[in-house]
Design brief:
Layout lengths: L7 H12 L5 H8 L3 H13 L19 E9 L4 H12 L4 E6 L6 E7 L2 H12 L5 E8 L14
Antiparallel strand pairs: 1-3, 1-4, 2-3
Helix pairs in contact: 2-3
């Protein structure tokens, strides 16, 4: 099975779409000095190959009055493959868990959790995370403010 290789045009196309997913094919073609047909075909290929996962609207969290974000670090009691996979699967079930990273170091996972307030966060942590038998230690880092938020990965 051949693995699709990005070329320079594909990379720049992905960079542009990450910054503004509402760009039209015509606008993309103009910026990349390509035909609209070529851009349409490239976008279709990038989607079918899994480079473009989905299109979303990014909400400005500062406009939402009731949002509380925390980054808990979770240490498991066991590091068996099944316990790690089970924890990942469990985190995927909770809409409050926005991101879940399996990491190196003293902790096994870093989560990004968003709730309405600190009380809801505490309840969620206690009732949904800490109850798992494989969870050992949890250390939370609470967000006071955000000065930068990027969503685009620079593709070279």
């Amino acid at each position: 099975m051949n693995k699709y290789q990005l070329d320079g045009v594909d990379a720049e196309l992905l960079n542009l779409l990450q910054l503004d997913g509402e760009l039209t094919y015509k606008e993309l073609a103009g910026k990349l000095n390509r035909s609209k047909t070529n851009i349409v075909e490239r976008v279709k290929k990038l989607r079918s190959e899994g480079f473009i996962d989905r299109y979303v609207a990014l909400v400005n969290p500062q406009k939402i009055k009731s949002i509380f974000v925390a980054f808990p670090l979770v240490q498991l009691k066991s590091h068996s493959k099944s316990d790690i996979e089970h924890f990942k699967q469990e985190m995927n079930l909770h809409e409050e868990v926005m991101e879940c990273y399996h990491i190196t170091g003293n902790f096994d996972f870093m989560l990004k959790i968003a709730t309405s307030d600190m009380i809801a966060y505490n309840d969620f942590l206690r009732d949904r995370i800490a109850i798992h038998p494989q969870v050992g230690t949890i250390q939370s880092f609470l967000v006071l403010s955000q000065s930068k938020r990027l969503t685009a990965y620079k593709i070279y």
